[in-house]
Design brief:
Helices cover 78% and strands 0% of the residues. It is an all-alpha fold.
């Protein structure tokens, strides 16, 4: 998971300078058209993905037309998983706002447009290092993914709350970008390990789908909320402080999941019962 998601960081390495070059050369309309063309390459890549055939795998038959809804209802009734999912929504609200508003905020604070675009390159470098490192750290017999998720989320929240102080210094935005990439980059790596622990193998695909659906809802709600705060207060600083507290609440949600956490032996027993 760490190696797979590190590709996002690789894209961020080049996205800032390339986007700024496209804006300077082709304008806003041309930049969107070329960005859409680049993103469309995902389609043939997805078409090349083929599930390996397993002749020993038996397809489950069900007479219930809407049996998949029962799976999602079961997931929604899992307290530990819901705590982690709510936390994921909260930190992704902040993540979406920062990815959209950070360059503009840096420019308004006195930096040039080229410096603002380079911020994403710095974040990308930290993201790559973080995701590969976290992926290795939470491998089998490795560190506890829930504990690491709590620690990284708390660090991200504290970092965002203090961001208005970073922009007061010339090198502040770059320092923030490097730390933000390192701390926030690894959060996505916890998707599969935590879904596997709290939902089980049988419901893993549904849990991961629900996870990313809620992440999308956070991305959808974050920027308008930050814009509303700016319209009311006229300050970007307060928006980032509130976003930081949202991420800190997400860390508390991750910590709360430990109260409903089951021992590994009990989870293994349930998996055996479901597969039998």
């Amino acid at each position: 998971m760490g190696i797979t998601t590190s590709g996002v960081g690789m894209g961020m390495l080049a996205s800032g300078p390339i986007t700024q070059y496209l804006l300077d050369t082709y304008g806003l309309r041309g930049t969107f058209l070329l960005s859409a063309a680049i993103a469309s390459h995902i389609i043939p890549c997805g078409m090349l993905l083929i599930t390996p055939y397993n002749k020993n795998q038996k397809k489950e038959k069900t007479n219930e037309r809407f049996a998949f809804l029962q799976t999602y209802l079961t997931l929604l009734k899992t307290p530990a998983l819901m705590c982690v999912l709510i936390g994921a929504v909260l930190w992704n609200i902040a993540y979406a706002v920062i990815m959209i508003q950070l360059p503009n905020y840096v420019v308004l604070s006195g930096s040039s447009k080229k410096e603002a675009s380079f911020v994403f390159t710095v974040i990308g470098i930290g993201t790559i290092l973080s995701r590969i490192t976290i992926g290795l750290a939470i491998s089998p017999n490795g560190l506890d993914p829930l504990l690491l998720n709590f620690g990284l989320t708390a660090c991200v929240g504290a970092l965002i709350v203090t961001f208005p102080f970073f922009v007061k210094f010339s090198s502040g935005p770059m320092v923030f970008a490097s730390l933000y990439g390192i701390y926030s980059g690894g959060l996505l790596v916890f998707t599969v390990p935590l879904c596997l622990e709290f939902a089980g193998v049988q419901r893993l695909s549904s849990a991961v789908g629900l996870w990313f659906f809620l992440l999308g809802m956070g991305s959808f709600a974050g920027p308008p909320l930050a814009g509303l705060v700016f319209d009311v207060t006229g300050s970007h600083d307060l928006s980032y402080i509130l976003l930081g507290f949202c991420v800190l609440v997400a860390a508390v949600c991750s910590l709360a999941a430990t109260f409903w956490r089951k021992p590994k032996t009990e989870n293994m027993t349930e998996e055996v019962v479901q597969n039998s």
